[in-house]
Prior knowledge:
Elements: H1 18-37, H2 42-46, H3 57-75, H4 103-121, H5 143-169
Helix pairs in contact: 1-5, 3-4, 3-5
Amino acid sequence: MTLTSGSHRTGPSTSADERAMLEGWLDYHRATLAWKCEGLAEEELRRRPLPPSELSLLGLVRHMAEVERYWFREIMLGEDLPDLYSTREDRDGDFHFSAEDTFAEAERVWRTEVERAREAAAGSSLDLVSKPESHHRGTAYSLRWVYTHMIEEYARHNGHADLLREQIDGAAGV
């Protein structure tokens, strides 16, 4: 599934094998986040309508780019990558953006990280386990666990996106 507008989202199969089911649910949630951002102006995507929360749709897209990158490339492949937005000094840097940061750039980075995540997982068994010494967490994770976690991560943040979108322009829906 490619990231498309919400009107073109396809629900995951109800009878696929485990791998196709996990990939289907993850792609569905990726498409849901894209849909929640669809049709909004830059100012609306940057808006933080639920104070004191710093959540914005722009921030959520930046956050999910980091999450895709972290779990599929840093954890599963053991890649040593530079920070995207968050740093040791600013753990919430994905939600802290300047006037120069744009949604178009964040979306490009997110879509790139989604494609790289797909490439990182392609052809690997769900039983593949990360090397605990390849990252700072020191824990081994199976690819199955990573898929399940990513579905949970998107589902949680898509709930945030629902609330943000409703506050921005009244749009609500699944």
